[in-house]
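Recap quiz, item 2
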Amino acid sequence: QVQLVQSGAEVKKPGASVKVSCKASGYLRTGYYIHWVRLAPGQGLEWMGWINPYTGGSKSSPKFQGRLTMTWETSINTAYMELSSLTSDDTAVYYCASRYGPPTYMDVWGKGTTVTVSS
Amino acid sequence: EVVLTQSPGTLSLSPGERATLSCRASQSISSRSLAWYQQKPGQTPRLLIYGASSRATGIPDRFSGSGSGTDFTLTINRLEPEDFAVFYCQQYDSSPLTFGGGTKVEIK
């Protein structure tokens, strides 16, 4: 079973960028997808995008296109999510999540990374 | 994009009662491509149901999912104290993947 370990909390100023990491341990077979999902205060879960670690292919929600970059570092089995031009609306807990198979639902989740955007 | 509307927003029930949560889609979801998650405060979401009615590994049989097309339901029979949480539906029929706004099941 894959486990996902995320980086620690971040505090950023408006206009800055944040980069969150998600290290996958265990046997990550071809066919796994890594998703990014966020939970803002008082809001519901919001899907941001996915990346396929083996092909490098990715897909993001139109809401984040132009601001969201998802990458994979093969040598250390780690996914990265970088969000730019931050505003206070980006204050949220950011989760990575995965599933073996098509990028549909998610059955393994990281513990989340809190990102606070404040001047 | 497919908009998922969950109702009610909050459900106040006592342990032992049955909870019925609704998830309505703005357009028909093919192949019953709908999942349900439970999230407790400060914790990670947990997959409960996929394919509209299949329980994920380790999920007790008091949780059941049903529905097709645009109307889906999560039923929790005989609520246990640990079941009180926020529940989300998620569609994966089309991109972007979308979640509903959530239903909070609280202790009455």
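Strands of chain B lie at 4-7, 10-13, 19-29, 34-39, 46-50, 54-55, 63-76, 85-91, 98-99, 103-107.
The mean pLDDT of chain B is 96.
End of item.
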